[in-house]
Design a protein that fits this description.
This protein is an alpha+beta fold. Helix content is 34%, strand content 34%.
Length: 149
């Protein structure tokens, strides 16, 4: 396994990974289609933000991305892994790399909007829930989480 900076050419593959990973939680194909705009990774997004691919041999199997909000705060915007690789510790591998990168950058706070099914994953790493908002699915709430470094 290795991590490498994404290039604009990766946008289609990263979008596929995002949609497949989101569908892992049991969302219907119709729901994934409805969320398509939010789950699409564009060339422009990759060029403007920090996106790192998780590569096994030559295959991209996951990625994470973050947005620097100011000198002290960063938003973890995406963290997705192909479903067939979920449960192998690769989410933790990506998070450890991300957290080390943030500590090296002297970032003081990380925020994120968590997939409800992933809230426990982030809590185990040290994030805490500070709020939530209702999504397009009635009675489905997206946790807002933060971690102070």
């Amino acid at each position: 396994m290795k991590l490498q900076k994404a290039t604009a050419e990766d946008h289609i593959l990263l979008t596929e990974i995002t949609k497949k990973s989101k569908a892992y939680w049991g969302y219907s194909e119709e729901q994934i289609t409805e969320w398509s705009n939010n789950l699409t990774v564009t060339e422009d997004y990759i060029e403007k933000n920090n996106v790192f691919n998780l590569v096994e041999e030559t295959k991209i199997i996951g990625y994470y991305s973050y947005i620097i909000q100011d000198n002290n705060q960063v938003e973890l915007d995406n963290l997705f892994i192909l479903p067939e690789y979920i449960g192998r510790g690769l989410g933790s591998y990506l998070m450890n790399d991300f957290l080390e990168r943030m500590r090296n950058e002297k970032i003081k706070k990380i925020i994120l909007d968590s997939e409800p099914n992933a809230e426990q994953f982030y809590q185990k790493i040290g994030f805490r829930k500070i709020g939530e908002f209702e999504t397009s699915i009635k009675n489905r709430f997206m946790p807002i989480m933060e971690m102070n470094l």
